[in-house]
Amino acid sequence: MRPAPVQAATGDSLGVAATKAGLYFGVAASPGRLSGIVGREFSQLTPENDMKPDTIAGHGGTVQNTGSADTLVDYAQSNNMIVRGHTMVWYSQAGSLSGANQPTLNTYIKNVLLKWGNKIAYWDVVNEALDDNNTGERRNQWPHTLDKDANNDGDYFDSSDTDYIRDSFKQARQVVDSNGLRTKLCINDYDIEGLTVKGGSKNKKSDAMYEIVKKYSQEPYKYIDCVGFQAHFNDNPNSIITDDLEDNIRRFAELGVEVHLSELDIDDDLSNNDIGAGQAANYRKVVRACLNVAKCTGITVWGISDSESWRSSERGLLFTGSNGNYTKKAAYTAVLEELKKGRGTVDPTPTPTDSPTPTPTDSPTPTPTDTPTSTPTGSPTQPPESDCRVSYSDNTWNTGFTAAVTVENAGDDTIDGWSLTWTWPGDQKVTSAWNATVTQSGNRVTARNASYNSLLAPGATASFGFQASYSGSNDAPQEFALNGVTCTRG
Ligand code: G3I
Question: How many CB atoms lie within 10 A of CB 187?
């Protein structure tokens, strides 16, 4: 049964704080865990088990038994959350896909992408391809058994080689592009978080992942959009939180891919961990590392509450309690505080122009959208419901448009630091902006004040504009929210 929708994330919540900082903050869940807290606290949802092939893959690459996954997707849609699909090609929980050849994998990849289309913002196409124990090798079981190193040079990157990672992403890319989907394609693994492992030696597993992402995110392939660092931190020498986490996130980000901390949980007793801090401090450190890199665009905690976690004995999550009765831990407060501080100094640093004059032409060349962000000055104060008004007008040509947006503080309190969010109904993509810093993740857009228009006294307005590309139709956004509160249209 589809659960009743709960109120979308508002006010003080992890999801709202993250949106203001320009990233998503999500949670892994199953249908049995969809209490109101999920919609209130989080802006993204990953099915913890319900989209894995052992649940939904049928004979010959067909897709079946999607009821639980549909429940989660519907819930996310009703609660304005994006979905990270997890996962397609994986040695574990492969169900009837286990041992499949590449054509069958390709059939499955196509079916599963088309089943949910743009309702899924990110898909883990390949999961956990790399071996344990920091060997830097691939796992030796299926689907690696599909690989062939034709020239015996120790990699699977040559055109004569067969590489299931390349071929799975190639198929996913082809399906996304030929069906006009916006779904982004991710590779996901654990123990790839640090540049080094405990003791300071190189993290060979991370280096191996880096080579894969470098190869298949660049020309001529351009298959991979995003990499998930699972971020299951514990006492294992390869799974600790190292001081070079941020540098490693940045190394991947500089390839042009988005980085996600896709399955975060942190053992609350990292007594052997070389940083030796408490759990809340560790959460703070990890969240800060992501915030400091503009292309680190999302964090997902792997469950709501300690007792309901896959590693309950390590108490690695942000809440205690069960069955919807949850209590926030110190780690929760630390994460919220850190998210509220925003990105800080990130790279690349955006330079919004003060008064640009965009000149749309018939065939504008969209510049790639990065995710630059800046910290709004002051701490945003929340206006009460509907105490903001937004006007939006666009000037559209065949593949692009400019838009002018005016935000009015219709409440009684001064707002110091604002962030306006909306969701595109189509495939619009912001390419440049002025008088605000505008970032886009999937079809969700966040416009943050420039340093000179952060203050909005009651009745005051701020205006900004942007240029964007689109295909199909260019319908205006249905709804805008200022600092997480829905605005009336003026
Ligand atoms: O639902 C059945 C229940 O009916 C049965 O009584 C019980 C008996 O064991 O099993 C239940 O299913 C379990 C399922 O979780 C739901 O709780 C499975 O046995 C158990 O194997 C499964 O574990 C999942 C694990 O992946 C399987 O590999 C965890 O929930 C899930 O958190 C975990 O997630 C993985 C990511 O997909 C990939 N990265 C690592 C991460 C943690 O292992």
Answer: 29
Q: What's the CA-to-centroid distance between 126 and ligand 1, angstroms? A: 18
What residue's CA is closest to ligand 1, atom 42? 310
Closest Cα to atom 14, ligand 1: which residue?
Answer: 49
For the chain, what is the radius of gyration of the CA atoms? 22
Q: Structure tokens of 213? A: 């992402």
**What are φ and ψ of residue 283, in 5° steps?**
-60, -45
For the question of whether the overall pTM of this predicted structure is more than 0.90, the answer is no
Among residues 225, 205, 228, which one has the least CA distance to residue 217? 225
Mutational pocket test of ligand 1: of 310, 311, 314, 317, the residue with most ligand atoms within 8 Å of the beta carbon: 310
Q: Which CATH number fits domain 5-341: 1.10.3300.10, 3.20.20.80, 3.90.550.10, 3.40.630.10?
A: 3.20.20.80
Cβ atoms 272, 308 nearer than 8 A: no
> What's the pLDDT score for residue 369?
31
Same CATH fold assignment for domains 5-341 and 388-489: no
CA of 310 to the centre of ligand 1 (A): 7
Q: Is the pLDDT of residue 380 over 50?
A: no
Residue 358 has a pLDDT of: 33
CB 354 within 8 A of CB 434: yes
Beta bridge partners of 322: 325
Could you tell me the residue ranges of all domains in the chain?
A: 5-341, 388-489
Q: Coil, helix or strand for 446?
A: strand
Residue 360: is its pLDDT beyond 50?
Answer: no
Of the pLDDT bands very low, low, confident and very high (cuts 50, 70, 90), residue 452 is low
Its CATH architecture, for the domain 388-489, is Sandwich (2.60)
Ligand 1 pocket member 49 (CB < 6 A): yes
- What pLDDT is recorded for position 455? 78
Give the residue numbers annotated as catalytic, written as ranges. 128, 263
Q: Which residue has the higher pLDDT, 357 or 430?
A: 430
**Bridge partner residues of 26 (DSSP):** 44, 300
Cβ density class 116-128: b for 16+ within 10 Å, e for less: beeebbbbbbbbb
Cβ 119 vs Cβ 44: under 8 Å: no
User: pLDDT at position 431, please?
Assistant: 79
Query: Amino acid identity of 149?
Result: D
- Across the range 175-200, mean pLDDT stands at 97
Q: Which of 27, 30, 48, 267 to mutate to test the pocket of ligand 1 (most atoms within 8 A of CB)?
A: 48
